[in-house]
Amino acid sequence: MFKKILIANRGEIAVRVIRACHEMGIAAVVVYSDVDRASLHVRKADEAYPIGPAAARESYLNISKILDVAKRSGAEAIHPGYGFLSENAKFAQACADAGIKFIGPTAAAMDAMGSKTRARQAMEKAGVPFVPGTSRGLEYEEAAQVAEKIGYPVMLKAAAGGGGKGMRLVHAGDQLKSALDAARSEAERSFGDREVYIEKAISNPRHIEMQVLADEHGNTVYLGERECSLQRRHQKVMEEAPSPIVDADMRRRMGEVAVRVAQAAKYTNAGTVEFLVDQQKNFYFLEMNTRLQVEHPVTELITGLDLVHLQIRIAAGEKLPFSQDDVRIRGHAIECRIYAEDPDNNYFPSPGKITLLLTPSGPGIRCDSGMYEGWTVPIDYDPLLAKLIGYGTDREQAIARLTRALNEYFVGGIKTNISLFRRILRDPEFQAARLDTGFLDRMLARTETKKDDKATADVAAVAAGVFTAMGAASTGSASTNAGASSADEEPSEWKNVSRREALH
Amino acid sequence: MLYDIIIDGKSFRLDLNHAEGKWSCRLNGEPLEIDPVLTRRDVLSLRIGDKAYEVKADHVAEQLHLWVGSVRFAVEVRDPRSLRSRSRAADDHGPRKITAAMPGKVVRVLVKEGDVVEAGGGIAVVEAMKMQNEIKSPKKGTVQKILVSDGQAVNAGDVMAIVE
To answer: What are the residue ranges spanned by the domains of chain A?
Structure first.
């Protein structure tokens, strides 16, 4: 087993991996950019090395700086987390060349999956079901012919894509040319690759993915699915496992396809095979994510396995300690991605100083967080602050526990999307598990009739007066986000009060 | 002590006194039995009668919010003694400051001084955390002053332009 691992990431996922390292008796080395010196992952690490400016390409994406830290610190392996260099085949290869174990698949397996069109060609040979369409980039004339053949609406997608960039939905033939041009130039700008392919658009699909794990001795297993249909702008917002529509038979069929996909690419370590599922529950291969996913905790909770421990053991050359038949799914788990963003301003990022943090706990609650009170969320990176995961015997209990925990959760000083999750969880359509990728946009388009909170408004009025009467020290004074609040202008009445009380 | 308190736009008159460890309270003339304990900065455990509430104070970009449980209220406290009444009512006449809603970087200023903008017209594009957001004019008018330039960093609440 490794004695020291470098974590080439930041935020909650770096903290998650540090915790796994410490549980396994492994020293955790981290890297940080200039704006991350005070980040939680640096506080929790055993060794920490600065790697340059805030801009990711000069720090967290800089392969030579990270390898240099690995050599200097004597780390034997690198865990890339998700995002940043996690799906960069050049980085995986550079690690291998430097004699440092990359905790993830080989560069060759990543390359096979990195391009959606090449992945498709390899998978078609393995008998993996696909949405009707082409497996390679097209010029306009050919695209028009294919679109006529498979029928509109069609979806244009960037071969190198992800996160919704370079994607266009086309309803009719007369929109195809301009949509193709737009998708291409967006793909070129985002990925440096203008290849765009075409697929039949599935209306109101579900997005369901299968977790796989493969050791370096030829054993590959699937660990059940995750329902990831709740998305905004093609980004996942909330995930759950198991999927409410997947039964044991469908799980086995999807799982076996996922294992075939992994084996066709000679895949090792943790990976995720994504499927689109139509209203008749037909599933189609979408892509493989060659890394640990943000939403991996829901799988951990329903299988009782620790995916990061298993990733590290696989990378160290161990065999999978269980077989497919040993994998059991028990209970239900739901994850909320807590983002620093403003629900009142179209979910725009809201960085700043966290002046107050109250974290939920209690039965069935897991909180994987990268923040702490007093920390200033930098403007330079993805606004994911934490993941709150609720677990219960069944879906209903998981929803109830998560709702309770969200009511305990409080992040002050910045705006977060916590209120969005309360709204989702009490939505009757969500509770009935009628989910698809358009669910969230439809829900947000409905204006929610606000309850008349007269009684609680009275409480707020009394509390406002009490805070003011107690004076500056009772509220906000340590906050840099507070402007000239009324409390600042008051003499410290609160101090006098406490002194008087102390004399009693 | 008398306070004028505005909760989500609605006015309350609160008469609150604290002496010898006891609070006395009248809300809009109604007497209330209250027992507040500050558990830590910004977190008040408040009993009104026998009902218990956890109230959190939250300051974001000069706006004070109070959360009662998980319900949020915008709060303004006016101490009638100070006579510092801040009439910030929606005023369509006179100059309006266009402020940054969040810290970030000005990607592009979309108007020049002297330009006429419609209500909802773009003033500047601000980027934070890889996302761009258009800052819009709340009213129709003439751009009187521009206080930022392309590439400049701004903090929440910074005045970016004035529309008259």
So the answer is: 4-103, 132-200, 206-445, 454-503
Stretches where chain A sits below pLDDT 50 are 477-504
Average pLDDT, chain A: 90
Kindly compute the dihedral angle of the four CA atoms of residues B86, B88, B92, B94, in this order, to the nearest 10 degrees.
40
Of the partner residues A342, A412, A457, the one whose CB lies closest to the CB of residue B58: A412
Cβ neighbours of residue A339 under 8 Å, at least 6 residues apart?
A: A347, A349, A383, A384, A385, A416, A417
CA distance to partner chain A, nearest, from residue B24 (Å): 11
Domain B96-163 grouped into CATH 3.40.50.300: no
Structure tokens at A364: 């069935």
Shortest Cα distance from B129 to chain A (angstroms)? 5
Residue spans per domain, chain B? 2-82, 96-163
Token couple for A334: 């739901």
Active-site residues of A, by number, are 291
CB A353 within 8 A of CB A22: no
With a threshold of 0.90, does the pTM exceed it?
Answer: no
d(C-alpha A380, C-alpha A29), whole Å:
22
Span A27-84, pLDDT tens digits: 999 999 999 999 999 999 999 999 999 999 999 999 999 999 999 999 999 999 999 9
Q: How many CB pairs under 8 A join A and B?
A: 185
Q: Which residues of A384-419 are buried (b: 16+ CB within 10 A; e: fewer)?
A: bbbbbbbbbeebebbbebbbbbbebbbbbbbbbbbe
Give B40-60 pLDDT, tens digit per residue. 999 999 999 999 999 999 987
- CATH T-level topology, domain B2-82: Glycoprotein, Type 4 Pilin (3.30.700)
Best A462, A477, A495 residue to mutate vs chain B (most B CBs within 10 Å): A462
Residues of B in contact with A342 (CB under 8 A): 101-102
> Could you tell me which residues come within 8 angstroms of residue B121 by beta carbon, excluding any fewer than 6 positions away?
B111, B136, B137
Give the residue from B53, B54, B71 with the most A CB atoms within 10 Å of its CB, the best one to mutate: B71
Token match 């079901």: residue?
A129
CA B25 – CA B16 distance, rounded (Å): 5
Amino acid present at A329? I
